Amino acid sequence: MSDTSLPRVIVLSTGGTIAGSGKSSMSLSEYKAGSLKGEQLVAAVPELEQFARVSVEQVGNIGSSNMTFAVWRTLADRIDALYAQDADVAGVVITHGTSTIEETAYFLNLTVRHDRPVVLVGAQRPATALSADGPLNLVNAVRTAASASSRGRGVLVVLNDEINAARDVTKSNTFRAETFGSGELGFLGYVDQDKVAYYRMPEKRHTTKSEFDLQTIGKLPAVEIVYSAVESNADVIVEALQQSGVRGIVFASTGAGSLSDREKATVQQSIKRKLNTVFVRSTRVANGRVLGRPDFDDLGIVAADNLSPQKARVLLMLALARTSDVKELRRIFSEY
User: Within this chain, do residues 161 and 188 fall inside the same structural domain, yes or no?
Assistant: First the structure.
């Protein structure tokens, strides 16, 4: 029987490596993601009963490379409904594959309308692996979601005993358990044996302070990423994307958001043809900001600040659902 004095946490299960199964305990890289249900993951970790009253809802069961906008909406809508309808829910945990966990987290950071904790968690090893990291990650995620100190910090990602902000976090290694970090900015805190310990707050707008309301947004505008490289065929790629109907293109640019002459000419040609494509300059570099520069600003290109290309894409999709005015888009990229 569960202790009714404990906080209540809802686990929304979507699959991923944390729910993966391999042929043997040594199948560390060859396994099927999303093999186990959320109920099985929770039942396998009885230690959760020490920290919260946990219930589970199965939202999907996929590898996160197959994540979809439809699942994102389902998650955002369900979280909002849970918090609006039940004041007893202390927090929500989402089990998720690590491949796209940072994109899902940032989307929810921009669209969930409540300040109670939303914590995404995954694993680098499947549930059947020797020294699987999923069980302890799940315990730590539930502890974080149940903690009153997690309120108002936006959506969080918890793995490897560390708490990261959705906006900052990124996966940095294909297999290592310590893959998630927040670059130069650092994580928000630790989940240690004694407590959930925080050391800083996210400064950018999120959740209750976000202007993005999914109830007013229909289909998300199409936005794609073009990766910069030496002598890349940016003109061919951009034209193909424009013909497919994209409204926005994020350049994963070199250096501090530099575009080659060929890429600049591609943007100029788009303007000349009045195609109304919005271009954003991010960078393929792991850390640092992309600043506005007159030669790019005069072309109407938006600087992504320090958002990664994949997160700049998420923000641009939501922003284009509200406006295509470049001045407004620059404000949005500055505030989020």
Answer: yes
